[in-house]
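Quiz preparation item.
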């Protein structure tokens, strides 16, 4: 290894360390919102894989299981906001301190509602900000470049469907 590559690795590690310190300095609510945005994007990608696998199975002649996979994934994509809201509520219950909640009959309920509100903020941020970048970063939209999610040599394992107007 030459000194240029060692310097490059050192610079990269220092940059990652600085980013980690900035993240640690943020309040838990900001970190939770960021994690929920990532969680929703990962779910969208996973469910898009299922939809594309269903289309590929239908092309290969497995119409029954292909249709079920495609329809199931399309339905799950519609439920991503609900999954994100539930995850926000649950995550906030795990990380928040009940002692910091004002005296009330059920502090766990208040913490859960704060998590629900934070998840709603993440969902609104996605709808207003992140969605604008999906056309520049296809992976965020669940549509990787060239329409290929998985490639193995010359064989395209999964392709985006030709028509996305009628997913069901």
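Solution:
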């Amino acid at each position: 290894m030459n000194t240029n590559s060692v310097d490059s690795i050192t610079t990269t590690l220092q940059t990652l360390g600085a980013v980690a310190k900035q993240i640690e300095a943020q309040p838990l609510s900001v970190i939770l919102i960021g994690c929920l945005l990532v969680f929703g994007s990962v779910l969208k990608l996973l469910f898009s894989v299922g939809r594309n696998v269903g289309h590929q199975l239908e092309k290969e002649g497995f119409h029954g299981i292909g249709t079920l996979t495609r329809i199931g994934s399309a339905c799950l994509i519609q439920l991503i906001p609900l999954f994100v809201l539930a995850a926000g509520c649950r995550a906030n219950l795990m990380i928040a301190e009940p002692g910091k909640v004002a005296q009330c009959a059920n502090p766990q309920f208040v913490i859960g509602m704060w998590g629900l509100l934070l998840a709603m903020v993440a969902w609104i941020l996605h709808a207003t900000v992140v969605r604008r970048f999906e056309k520049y970063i296809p992976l965020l939209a669940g549509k990787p470049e060239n329409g290929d999610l998985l490639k193995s040599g010359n064989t395209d394992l999964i392709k985006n469907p030709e028509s996305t107007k009628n997913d069901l």
